Amino acid sequence: MLRLPQFEYAAPHTIAQALSYLKDGAGEAALVAGGTDLYPNMKRGLLEPRLVVGLSAIPELKGLYRANSGELVIGSCTTLSEVARDARVLASARALAIAALSVSTPALRNMGTLGGNLCLDTRCNYYNQSHLWRQAIGFCMKKDGDICLVAPGSPRCWAISSCDTAPALIALGASARLVGPKGERTVSIESLYRDDGINYLAKEPDEIVAQIIVPSRTDWRSTYWKLRRRGSFDFPVLGVAVAVRTDPSAAVCEAKIVLGGVAARPLTLPSAAHALLGQPLCEETIAGAAEQAYRVAKPVDNSDLTLGYRKRMVRVYLTRALRELAGLGSTATAGGEVGAA
């Protein structure tokens, strides 16, 4: 049986108190909200903080409201269940609602938070195992070793981003308010990530994601499609987030396409989005964008299912997402399990 190691726990009631605890932790502190990712990783020996700083008792980090400017402001400790069922999110940020609803199981969505999902550790078949398993094959670069077992000749870690909500929020043009000892700053969700399996977050270790701001885009349509082996619980093998805006002639005038599960950070596909511009969402246009996405996506052997299948599904799932937004129907449902090619 895997057990949690010993650690100190702090339960601040303000962001200022949380930042003070992080300072006291001297680089050996970890933030926790719902704990659905941190605690399992601690049991496996992947993370070993001396101090765990809980954020769940800070009122400022909870709740959702619409600002006077029309933006949706979501506290980072708002649960995924709350995000998924909120009528305002469903009306103006549908991709986010679908993505939040696709995370894990109802029990874990009731615990897991939006901010926690955004900060989800990168994953790899060689990393997300028990200490004994990893010891038996030789530790990897991400923890306790010095080579990447996926690509032994590479100088970097190839663990992948398996966050569902990040691709959706990037497609929607969302940003995050970060609070740290040097003050506050707002950054785009897209710039929150690095293409590095180890140092995957661009925020400073002593910064807290306080709020997520989603711009008012009632004239946009968006969706999120998720590939996984089972229809519930599993992390994404592939996530496809799409947002489009059309002009009065039904031609696409703006588009954003983002993939999850294929790189160390959510992968934005400007070439695939560009293939849609100035065109109606018809079968030919959709096929062109899907082909562009297929060419760019280069998954590596560190996740479930075979490489060839995962790459082929980029074309299939983007086609399904765009067909949904075009009102052309689809052969499956968003957030489903492994589908037919």
What would you note in describing this structure?
With about 350 residues, this protein is of the alpha+beta class. It has three domains: about 10-60, Uridine Diphospho-n-acetylenolpyruvylglucosamine Reductase, domain 2 (2-Layer Sandwich); about 60-120 and about 160-215, 2-Layer Sandwich (Uridine Diphospho-n-acetylenolpyruvylglucosamine Reductase, domain 3), CATH 3.30.465.10; about 220-325, 2-Layer Sandwich (Enolase-like, domain 1). It has helices spanning about 15-25, 40-45, 80-85, 85-90, 95-100, 105-110, 115-120, 130-135, 165-170, 270-275, 285-295, 305-325; strands at about 10, 30, 50-55, 65, 70-75, 175-180, 185-190, 210-215, 220-225, 240-245, 250-260, 265-270. Strand 2 (about 30), helix 2 and strand 3 (about 50-55) form a beta-alpha-beta unit. The protein is globular and about 60 Å long. The mean pLDDT is about 95. It has a five-stranded antiparallel β-sheet, with no helix packed on it. The chain has a four-stranded antiparallel β-sheet with strand order 9-10-11-12, sandwiched between helices. It has a three-stranded parallel β-sheet with strand order 1-3-2, covered by helices on one side.
CATH topology of the largest domain: Uridine Diphospho-n-acetylenolpyruvylglucosamine Reductase, domain 3
Number of strands: 12
Helix share, percent: 25-40%
**Major sheet: order of its strands?**
4-5-8-6-7
Distance between the ends? 39 Å
CATH level 1 class label of the largest domain = Alpha Beta
* Total helical segments: 12
Q: What string, H for helix and E for strand, traces the elements in order?
A: EHEHEEEHHHHHHHEEEEEEEHHH
State the secondary-structure class: alpha+beta
Average pLDDT metric? 95
Poorly predicted runs of 5 or more residues: none
Rg measurement, Å? 20 Å
CATH architecture of the largest domain: 2-Layer Sandwich
* Total of domains: 3
* Overall form: globular
Major beta sheet, specifics?
Answer: 5 strands, antiparallel
Beta fraction: 15-25%
